[in-house]
Design brief:
Helix 1 packs across helix 4. The protein contains eleven helices and no strands. It is mainly α. Helix content is 77%, strand content 0%. The protein is globular and about 50 Å long. The protein has two domains: 49 residues, Homeodomain-like (Arc Repressor Mutant, subunit A); 122 residues, Orthogonal Bundle (Tetracycline Repressor, domain 2), CATH 1.10.357.
Length: 184
């Protein structure tokens, strides 16, 4: 990809992250995003089909950049509970951002992007233990982790399911499945 295109795309993602941190989704337009990035609307549409596509990309980028080693050899050395706690710590630090994206108008796309990332990383962690997960199993575990995360992101549920217990629930879900005896 042309370096100018990479720079424009990165500027749009950074602008989206900044604006979602500052405003409700309904207050963010394509014009706002392009303007914050120092680009034109035409350049915006060269990279993204619509506002929600950029918001989903921004959510996935923030998530993946912070949790890149989750489920990898380095992340695995921390253990599932510690890795899940790192995950929840990141989500807690950027709680409003993720609430707006996962529970907002572009929620399903962001939910699916984060679930795909988690599914992949859970499969990698299982592979380090010599367990190969098929697509359905990866989806099941990633979806379970996302169910805990989205429940925790909800303000009312967060009082009932605090960060520590949510991290424990995610770790327990994954470890009970990938370490359970019997067919998978």
């Amino acid at each position: 990809m042309d370096p100018r295109q990479v720079k424009s795309r990165e500027a749009l993602i950074t602008a989206a992250i900044d604006l979602v941190d500052e405003r409700e989704l309904g207050e963010i337009s394509v014009t706002d995003l392009a303007s914050r990035a120092g680009l034109t609307r035409m350049t915006f549409y060269q990279h993204f089909a619509d506002r929600d596509a950029l918001l989903q990309a921004a959510g996935a980028e923030r998530f993946e950049s912070a949790l890149g080693d989750f489920g990898t050899g380095e992340g695995q050395r921390r253990g599932l509970l510690a890795g899940s706690q790192v995950l929840l710590d990141h989500l807690s630090e950027h709680r409003v951002f993720y609430q707006r994206l996962v529970l907002g108008t572009s929620g399903i796309q962001t939910y699916q992007a984060i679930q795909a990332f988690l599914s992949d990383r859970i499969a990698r962690a299982a592979a380090l233990d010599g367990i190969e997960l098929d697509e359905a199993q990866r989806l099941f575990l990633g979806g379970g982790a996302m169910a805990h995360i989205s429940r925790w992101l909800d303000d009312d549920a967060a009082r009932v399911f605090p960060e520590d217990s949510t991290a424990e629930a995610i770790a327990a879900l994954i470890s009970s499945y990938i370490r359970a005896p019997g067919p998978r």
